[in-house]
Design goal:
465 residues; 2 domains; Pdz3 Domain; ABC transporter transmembrane region fold
Length: 465
């Protein structure tokens, strides 16, 4: 890639344009990741019983208690004379859990209410439905001690017990989610028709994000394209000045068509490579980063599991890239040979017709044309094989991770909406990766073109007397 990197110096005068394009990529990645992240509230509104507000209260209560919780509707069951319908199920206990006393929450516990002081100072048990209890816990201040009424779900004869817990701090994202929930009208638990305005509002936000991202994409592509063609113009001017000072022996040995091909075909191939570098190679990784961040926020363990396909894919892309470099160089040489045949035939067309050499010239052109077709077919074969191979590896790894995620969902260790968001982010990640798989092929083709261009530029020139 030495020659391709060397060609980038012609873009230095237009670094302001490229810098602005790079800044646009940052905005594109942010908006892409933000759009993917909106899958989670959308799923909460559409398919989750708790809804957007219930999700916010659950998230805040989880941070306050230091345990993983889910709201669960349970079969009719009477405990101490009370009918249980919806409880807060403890599915995991983190290090941030702060029990006040020897007893603590465990993964088999249901939180069914609160223990509060009565009018006479005695302790009274208040049985509270899970959705209402989550909101009350979410609104409790940090550092305050609450006495939770807890029931062990694994024991049929167990009696409720009281577990005092000191409420901890909330994460920034949970705090922002709670602030948003406070400002949005609550349609109520299970009121699906009442959620429709929320869903429409979410769609409007997605549309606005998409339009803004489209504007930044246009600006980025325009700035990159104009900067590249200005650089190519400077490169052609530099090479033209070199050609004017080359000795005539150079054209006797290589022919005029070879130099012409380097000006036309090779510079166009180099421009495509630079456009790929500053266009797709900047935008697609930025979108991939946005998708990865969204997936990591949903589940970093599963995301890392899905990314095990990276090293094998890198090995295949590198191996195919070397073959592409060789095929591209031979194709460019075949283009030069074709231009030579065309030039000789058309310039000497009177001689060809005088000696009835049409058949010989046709066979000569056919041989050159067939050699070019052979190299082009090889390049297309390599280019066509790269994307599906990388995509298959990624999908295989993603399916393994999706299987693990499904196990967590069915065992109530992962929220369904979070699982859906993670899957959307994961498959959104595969699209940029699939496109980037062909980037190496383009770079190798551009490297071959750059090598021929700089061979011309570095040729020994006539000495000035």
């Amino acid at each position: 890639m030495q020659n391709f990197i060397r060609s980038l110096k012609y873009l230095w005068p237009y670094r302001v344009r490229i810098g602005a394009a790079l800044l646009c990529c940052v905005f594109i990645a942010t908006l892409w990741g933000g759009g993917l992240g909106l899958t989670l509230p959308g799923a909460k509104i559409l398919i989750s019983e708790e809804g957007l507000h219930g999700w916010a209260w659950n998230t805040l209560a989880r941070d306050r208690l230091g345990v993983g919780i889910v709201q669960r509707s349970v079969p009719p069951r009477r405990v101490d004379g009370h009918e249980l319908s919806k409880v807060i199920d403890v599915v995991s206990v983190s290090d941030s859990h702060q029990p006040v006393g020897p007893d603590r929450l465990s993964e088999t516990d249901w939180i069914v209410g609160l223990s509060i002081p009565g009018p006479d100072g005695s302790e009274q048990w208040e049985w509270v439905r899970g959705d209402i209890l989550a909101e009350r816990l979410a609104r409790t201040d940090e550092g305050q001690t609450v006495r939770l009424l807890v029931f062990n779900s694994n024991s049929a004869s167990a009696q409720p017990r009281v577990v005092p817990v000191r409420m901890g701090p909330t994460e920034l994202t949970s705090h922002l989610l709670g602030e948003l929930a406070e400002k949005i009208p609550n349609p109520g638990i299970g009121n699906l028709p009442g959620r429709f305005p929320l869903f429409v509002g979410l769609l409007v936000v997605v549309l606005i994000i998409t339009c803004i991202r489209a504007v930044f994409t246009f600006i980025q592509e325009y700035l990159v394209g104009t900067a590249i063609w200005r650089g190519i113009m400077d490169l052609r001017s530099r090479n033209y000045n070199v050609v004017l000072h080359l000795p005539t022996t150079f054209f006797s040995e290589k022919g005029v068509s070879d130099a012409t091909s380097r000006f036309i075909q090779d510079t166009n191939e180099l421009a495509r490579g630079q456009n790929t570098l500053l266009g797709k190679t900047m935008v697609e990784p930025a979108k991939a980063v946005g998708a990865v961040v969204t997936a990591l926020c949903a589940s970093w363990e599963l995301t890392l599991m899905a990314m095990v396909a990276g090293p094998p894919a890198f090995f295949l892309i590198r191996k195919m890239g070397k073959k592409m470099h060789k095929a591209s160089r031979r194709a460019l040489e075949s283009w030069s040979s074709m231009l030579a045949v065309l030039n000789e035939t058309l310039v000497g067309i009177r001689v060809v017709k005088s000696y009835t050499m049409e058949g010989a010239e046709r066979r000569r052109f056919f041989r050159v044309n067939r050699a070019l077709l052979k190299q082009q077919n090889r390049m297309e074969r390599l280019d066509a094989a790269t994307g599906p191979t990388v995509e298959s590896l990624g999908i295989a790894a993603g399916m393994v991770a999706a299987g693990a995620a499904g196990y967590l969902v069915f065992n109530h260790r992962m929220d369904q909406a979070v699982f859906l968001t993670w899957m959307v982010a994961l498959f959104a990640l595969f699209d940029p990766v699939r496109k980037l798989a062909k980037v190496s092929m383009r770079f190798q083709a551009s490297e071959a073109a750059a090598k021929r261009i700089f061979e011309l530029q570095d040729s020994e020139q006539e000495k000035f007397v």
